[in-house]
């Protein structure tokens, strides 16, 4: 496990070693001591499966740290700095496969779009789920995220998320 900083403070891109074996591969996706070194004490492990490519989720900033990694398929992940600081609204995108993970601290918005059918996405968090979150419109032109598909599938709730301008007004 090799963690590298990104342009957003606290967000880490993690490279995982994937070892081929008879008929497939093996990877150590979770190692308590190694994740604790990153500051993550996992209390909940969620798994999401997506049958189709082009499924978009986010942008959500929850009150917990996240460790995100696909175990099958590929995703385009986008993280957005939404914490109150000088780098507010910095955006960075990552293509993640089975040998990749992201560590996203609380308050940083995260989203993803499946790039392949049959994608399984793991989300490890350090607090139990609650409905509290900040959400931002993933299509906000100010973010200028280039989502990889024209025919995206997303929830009505995500599509109804406020713009960055609305979020700024709420915080003022």
UniProtKB/TrEMBL annotation:
Any Gene Ontology CC annotation:
cytosol
| GO function term, MF aspect, one | dTDP-4-dehydrorhamnose 3,5-epimerase activity
SUPFAM superfamilies annotated for this entry?
RmlC-like cupins
Site, as annotated: Participates in a stacking interaction with the thymidine ring of dTDP-4-oxo-6-deoxyglucose: 129
The record's Gene3D superfamilies line, in alphabetical order, gives:
Jelly Rolls
**Keyword flag Isomerase:** yes
Tell me, which GO biological process terms does this entry list? dTDP-rhamnose biosynthetic process; polysaccharide biosynthetic process
Which UniProt keywords are listed?
Isomerase
Q: What is its EC number?
A: 5.1.3.13
Family in the record: Belongs to the dTDP-4-dehydrorhamnose 3,5-epimerase family.
Protein name as catalogued: dTDP-4-dehydrorhamnose 3,5-epimerase
């Amino acid at each position: 496990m090799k963690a590298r900083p990104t342009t957003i403070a606290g967000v880490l891109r993690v490279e995982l070693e994937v070892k081929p074996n008879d008929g497939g591969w093996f990877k150590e996706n979770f190692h308590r001591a190694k994740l604790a070194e990153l500051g993550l004490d996992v209390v909940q492990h969620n798994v999401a499966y997506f049958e189709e490519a082009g499924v978009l989720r986010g942008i959500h900033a929850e009150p917990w740290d996240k460790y995100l990694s696909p175990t099958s398929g590929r995703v385009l992940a986008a993280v957005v700095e939404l914490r109150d600081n000088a780098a507010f609204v910095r955006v960075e995108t990552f293509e993640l496969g089975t040998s990749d993970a992201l560590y996203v601290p609380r308050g940083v918005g995260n989203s993803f779009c499946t790039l392949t059918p049959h994608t399984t996405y793991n989300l490890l968090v350090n607090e139990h789920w609650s409905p509290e979150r900040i959400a931002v419109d993933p299509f906000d032109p100010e973010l200028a995220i280039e989502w990889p598909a024209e025919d995206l599938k997303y929830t009505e709730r995500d599509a109804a998320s406020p713009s960055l301008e609305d979020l700024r007004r709420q915080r003022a």
